[in-house]
Amino acid sequence: MNNKKKERIYITELIEDPPISYPMYYTISSALKDNEFLLDALRAIHLSDFENLKTPKNASEIFASISVGCFAIYKEQYVVGYFGGKLMHLDSTGWKSIAVTEDIFDLDNWLI
Known about the structure:
Layout: E1 6-10, H1 11-14, E2 25-29, H2 36-47, H3 59-67, E3 72-74, E4 78-83, E5 86-91, E6 94-97, E7 110-111
Antiparallel strand pairs: 1-2, 3-4, 3-7, 4-5, 5-6
């Protein structure tokens, strides 16, 4: 199986008539295409449904969640994962490094 192959996952494949339709798709690896943790995080963002998520009490909770295969949400608009020792956020072109700014350290910007 070639895990390096990139695929697009369209929001309309996950949600019929999504209230937030931008970006229209995300570019992810074939290995992540069926990852329910990732798909649930994308659904939460595009439905603005954060009811089942919580604000972490400390940074350790973010990393503990990510280390078991879950994905965090940053500023209610980015899915965040931890790959190759880096925090990465997902956009339409794929995974991008997160810039370290003051906002990163504000736990109110995170949901797990």
